[in-house]
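Annex B.
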Amino acid sequence: MTISNALAERELLIRLKEGDHDAFTMLYGTHHDTLYLYAYRLVDDEDLAADFVQEAFVYIWEKRASLYIESSFIAYLFRTVKHKFLNLKAHYKVRADFADNFQHYLDQGTYVVDRAMEEKELFQQLQDELARLPQKMAKIFRLRQQNISDTEIAEQLGISEKTVKNLMSQTLKKLGHTFKRLVLFLFA
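RNA polymerase sigma-70 factor (ECF subfamily): predicted structure tokens.
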């Protein structure tokens, strides 16, 4: 930019501060294409680059009365577009982080719901299997689930502790084929 161009631009900026539409139009016409190319290099998207340029000039017009430009006007415009780009990039990062966290939450929620449903189904299957067992075996199993010791079970049922252990062993074998995973979970 030559000295005469720099002086002319300074004059246009003074007129812009006073609200001169023609000065704004001249500044826009002078710098639009350069600013658009800069924005396009940042975002690699024609529409987004055009939006950045438009927003930069709207900002200039809205803040015209309080504008303080130390360096060249084009450098000021470049900084304005760069800030818009950085804000957009930060916004996308926040959205991406939110989406990741939300997806993790959904995945966890699905796991919890799936696990609860699976446990309910397994519990119902266990109840069905216990109903098929001889009454004494089922009773010993249910008492064992309540953390009652073999000695106490033997006393309650009026049988020996060895009989309780044998019946429990037979029960676990019968249930083990169907509920190996559940039995390990319950009695591990």
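Residues 73-132 form the longest helix (60 residues). The chain has two domains: 3-97, 108-187. Further annotation is deferred to the next reporting cycle.
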